Amino acid sequence: MALKAIGRLVALALLFASTACVPTLVTSAPPTYAPTSTSTVPAPAEPAATPVVLPSPTPEPPLAALINSQPIYLADYERELGQYEASLLSQGIDPNSPDGQAHLAQARAWILDWMISEVLIEQAAVAAGVGVSDAEVDADMQEMIAESGGEEPFLAKLAECGETYEDAWQKERRQLIGMAMTQRIIDGVPATAEHVHARHILVDTSQEAERALAQLQAGADFAALARAYSQDTSTRETGGDLGFFPRSILLAPEVEEAAFALQPGQFSGVVTSTLGYHIVQVVERDPARPVSPENLRLLQDRAVQEWIDELWAQAVVQRFVETAS
Questions:
Q1: Termini Cα distance of the chain
Q2: Domain span holding position 256
Q3: Which residues contact 151 (CB under 8 A, 6 or more apart)?
Q4: pLDDT tens for residues 177-229?
Q5: Helices 151-160 and 165-187: crossing angle, nearest 10°?
Q6: Are both 167 and 315 inside the same structural domain?
Q7: CB-based burial of residue 37 (10 Å sphere; 0-12 exposed, 13-18 middle, 19+ buried)?
């Protein structure tokens, strides 16, 4: 098993990629509502393409949600859901089939979460004094019109999706604001940070870990023990070498905490994590080392996700559609 966390946590284009009708997501929803693989979602016994509408505080127009007193209208939510349903058809998935119903059941929650996240980000932008000019939005719209082959086919495509030019303009504005706010968070992540160069031995039981620790205390070579006993196949052949890493990178925070508490040449006691039982040794420390591009991207994505989570935690969100499958 690999101990290093590789890959992005947040993508600016997530979940939607099948048709031009489908919006580009600015940010992922918070963990409580994050989408999971559609293959694991059981199909509902009855088709349920239309969301159940719960009572909203105002009869007209009906609401899908209210976020810090700012509405998301039911019609807008249903339009996004309808666009997703159309995207299933373009992929050869019948929305009325068990597979299509499973996709739709899951989409109801994360589409609304995405729309709520957009509102939260826009509210945060207002509070931070971040905005985009009409000219910027107009320029992007003109690019999309040109890419569509002109105004007529562009408007025809919008009509297909149930959107007006104003709908598309506002959507583009929200996405530009989201990108601007995301860039602010990314820019705040330092490109230089304290690093440790560490290695570890990972075993399955505390007894194995204690035996390895006893051998180390008796003078055994750490790298040799790692090659002989470690269950981390990604580092075993290199003597358990994890390389240089800054804080908030490893999948096992306990290992990271132990590493940053050690000086070069020192090794830890037995460290327990969800991966198993570790012994950690620090080889070198560097108080100000450039963060690798891969780790910098990971730290940036994590910073954005934590910011989104904080927006959700501080918000008052009321939902007026039943999105559970």
A1: 34
A2: 193-290
A3: 145
A4: 999 999 999 999 999 999 999 999 999 999 999 999 999 999 999 999 999 99
A5: 90
A6: yes
A7: exposed
> Across the strands, what pairs with 282?
198
Please write the tens of the pLDDT for every residue from 95-143: 999 999 999 999 999 999 999 999 999 999 999 999 999 999 999 999 9
Model confidence at 10, pLDDT cuts 50, 70, 90, reads very low
Contacts of 106 (CB under 8 A, 6+ apart): 35, 36, 38, 41, 325
59 with 150, same domain: the answer is yes
Q: Above pLDDT 90, what percent of the chain?
A: 76
Letter string b/e over residues 234-264, b meaning 16 or more CB atoms within 10 A of that residue's CB: bbbeebbbbebbbeebbebebbbebbbebee
DSSP string, 148-189: TTSHHHHHHHHHHTT--HHHHHHHHHHHHHHHHHHHHHHHTS
58 and 88 share a domain? yes
Specify the CATH number for the domain of residue 37.
1.10.4030.10
Q: What are phi and psi of 269, to 5 degrees?
A: -80, -160
Same domain for 169 and 205:
no
Cα–Cα distance for residue pair 21/15, rounded to 1 Å: 13
Where does residue 292 rank: exposed (0-12), middle (13-18), buried (19+ CB within 10 A)?
middle
Mark whether 232 and 178 lie in a shared domain.
no
Asked whether the beta carbons of 250 and 298 are under 8 A apart, the reply is: no
**CA 121 to the chain's CA centroid:** 15
The residues, any chain, with a CB within 8 Å of residue 87's CB and separated by 6 or more, are: 16, 18, 19, 21, 22
- 145 and 218 housed in the same domain: no
143 lies in the same domain as 197: no
Q: What is the per-residue pLDDT across 19-67, written as a single tens digit (0 to 9) for each?
A: 334 333 233 333 333 333 333 333 333 334 445 555 555 557 899 999 9
Beta pairing partners, 113: none
Residue listed under structure tokens 């989570």: 309
